[in-house]
Structure formats: structure tokens, C-alpha cells
Amino acid sequence: MSKELPVIEVRNLHKSFDGVEVLKGIDFEVERGNIISIIGSSGSGKSTLLRCMNWLEQPDSGSIRIVGDRIGISEDGKTPMTEKELAGLRARMAMVFQGFNLWPHLSVLQNVTEAPIHVQGIAKDKAIAQAEAWLDRVGMLFKKNAYPFTLSGGQKQRVAIARGLAMNPEVILFDEPTSALDPELVGEVQDVIGELAKDNFTMVIVTHEMDFAQSISNEVAFIDKGVVVEQAPPEKFFNNPETERLKKFIGKYK
User: Fold this and answer.
1) pLDDT in tens, 41-82
2) Average pLDDT value over all residues in the chain
3) CA gap 141, 153 in Å, rounded
4) Which of 84, 131, 154, 242 matches a 20 to 30 Å C-alpha distance to 160?
5) Measured between alpha carbons, how far is residue 116 from residues 87, 109, 154, 165, 168 in Å?
6) Quick check: 105 and 141 in contact, CB under 8 A?
7) pLDDT digit string (tens) for 83-108?
């Protein structure tokens, strides 16, 4: 019996900005149903790795696959994908940004139905029914006709999560989903992500919230200076780290 392919497989990933190497040969896998939190200091490469996964940032070298399908570059390793091919693969990886990225001129419902209708070609009535179900799931159905400027930060982020889920993705990527929120709103977004975890959604979460990472993750990865220094289940990761660098990092939060 063959082993199931990882949902995401990153191999020897390199990325530089203005001559400064930010990712230095990252290897990283996400198995189906797993929740992996990525932690590390500012500038360590966490968000760059996440953005490379769905080709919002184009890596300099290395490969990224979603369930075996290479993203960004065709299988020959040379030919760039067309925008249509790229959009099809990106649709399998929902991205939830720290800045929400909602369309301000569209209502909550329209924000959630836009991509299913125009990217996936889903019929409008089906897209609306699906969007309403996800908005209800994240506690935002009552705001379906509101516009983003009327929402709190926590409400905007919950709508952004519903928008990602409406694409029926194979994995959800969260880039610091609570960092732009007032402290009293952080919990409501963490609660929504926690509920998704109960249903075995595959998730990769870049976060600076150590308690949240410890409580929700199957594994936690520590990135420092562009490499994965250590990756382990949360109990071992936080209570028995192997490297001095991780021990020092965790010590700052205790």
C-alpha cells in the first residue's frame, strides 16, 4: 500500500531579496489533516515561506508541490505556468492574510462568493448557499450584507477565513492571522481556527502566539535565519527542545 502524498511538499527552497538570502534550502512537508504552526523571530523567513508555497513570492530555486502537483514551474523545472494553471493550483491553497485583504467595494457575501463564481465557475445560487453556510460557520452570517468598513478586525478576519473555505481548499495557509487585531479580538479568531481543527482541516499557521501554537498544532516548526532549525510535536517542541537556539527563543516567552 503506497503512502499518501503530502498535501504540501517543499524541497530545497531558496529565496533572496536584494541579494540577501531569506530562505536557505528549506525542506518542509504537511501531511493531510495536520496542523503545523511556524514560529520564529521577525525576519526569519516564516511569511516568505508561506507566500512561496502558493507562489505569491517566486522562489529562486527549489520545488513546491501540492498533493504531487508542482506549482509555479512545470514538471520540466523550466517552463513557467500560465496564469490559468497557477490560479487552479492556488485555489487548492486558501491564504488568510494578517491584513484581511477583503474587497472594500463588495459586501461580506460578495467577498465570499467572488472567487467560487469567477475562478471555479460555480453557479451563483450554489455559491451563495455555500458562502452563507461558511459565514454561519464562522459566526458572520448576520453581517452578510454589510461592507468591510463596518466590521471590527476580528469580524473581518472571520470573513476572510470564510472566503478561503468557500474555495474548498486542500490546505489553509494563515499568515499571522491575529497580529493585526486588538488583544480582546484575538480569541474570537483563534476560536474559529480551533473549530476548524476539530474537523481535521489541513492548516499551516505562521504565528507569534506561543500558547495558541502549543494548543492547536500537531507539529511546530522553528525557523531561524532562513532554515528550519527544529520541528516536533508541541509537547516535545516546547518542553524538551534539542537546540540551544530554540531553547533561548522559547525562554523569552516563559
Assistant:
1) 888 889 999 999 989 999 999 999 999 999 988 777 778 888
2) 91
3) 16
4) 84
5) 12, 12, 23, 10, 9
6) no
7) 888 888 888 999 998 888 899 999 99
Domains of the chain: 1-92+169-254 (3.40.50.300), 101-167 (no CATH)
Beta-carbon contacts of residue 203 (< 8 Å; ≥ 6 apart):
34, 35, 36, 171, 172, 173, 174, 193, 196, 197
Could you tell me if 29 and 210 are in contact, meaning their C-beta atoms sit under 8 angstroms apart?
A: no
CB 167 within 8 A of CB 110: no
Q: Report whether 159 contacts 135 (CB < 8 A).
A: yes
Single-letter code of the amino acid located at 211? D
Amino acid at 107: S
* Euclidean distance between CA atoms 114 and 229, whole angstroms: 39
How many Å apart are CA 159 and CA 198, to the nearest integer? 19
Q: What's this model's pTM, rounded to 2 decimal places? A: 0.91
Largest CA distance in the chain: 55
210 Cβ contact list (under 8 Å, min separation 6): 39, 238, 250, 253
